[in-house]
LysR family transcriptional regulator
Amino acid sequence: MPPTLNSIISRLHVKQLRLLIAIEEHGSLLGAAKQLAMTQPGASKALHEIETTFGASLFERSNRGLEPNAVGRCVIRYARLIQSDLAHLREEMVGIMRGHGGRVSVGVIMGAVPLLTDAITVVTDAQPDMSIEIVEDTSATLLSLIDAGRLDLAICRTSVSQTPYLYDSTFVRDETLAVIANAAHPLAHEARVALGDLTDYRWVVYRANMPMRLLLEREFHDAGLRFPAQLLETTSAFATVSLLQKNASLVALVSTDVARFYTGHGVACTLPLQLASRSEPYELVTRRGAPLSHGAQMLMEAIVSRGAQQVE
């Protein structure tokens, strides 16, 4: 069994984590020692101390040098995360000391990307030196990143979580949906399109059990239609529009914000299909009770403000 967390925290040093990363990069103790300005005996002793701390061997010796084993790859992956977090810590401290917002990590579901980019434009105009990391993914993944402290906030839905009480959430606005296609789609110039007209076309959709996918399945069920079997599943807005560009027979269900963005830039058209169902609203989500930086608070205010403006 590995040692306790308290034991690891009390014995582990940041320089030791740098050594692990360097060994993986160089494949040898000598190369790692040179990079960190250590002697080879010193590096060897440090590696022994690290392996003692974790209670496991982290590398295997081969004719190619030192290669991390399964446990070693795991430890090195987290060593890189810790190193990255420390870099972000310094960046945010510098920002605070210079009087601007520092650094913010924000997650977003595909449909809310236009809303987020509008809010970011407002914030970066006011704070040009602010750094912002954007992670686009599903609500479930974004909530897990909030749990792990990897995101400061996210525009997503807490309804997908079995523990929504772990989050503070604020209503941003309702989401309305549209069906988009290539401008050369056979139905692109029809005055009106019914769902039954689209049963023979291949759909680009979110994967099973996600809110937007469930909504589309309900639309087909309520219309007495069989849900299409041949699907292209993705959570990426870029993958969606790229697929539509390559194949004029595809259709995709997206938020009206995304549809408006694509049609405004001439890369897709919105089909004149009226959907009976409404999607769940967007929420602005943070970890309950977690302290927020000045930059995160600024971005949250901008998101709520932009959401309210778009409703009016």
Notes: The CA atoms of residues 231 and 259 lie 20 Å apart. The chain has three domains: 5-91, 100-175+280-309, 177-277. The chain has a mean pLDDT of 89. The longest helix spans residues 70-97.
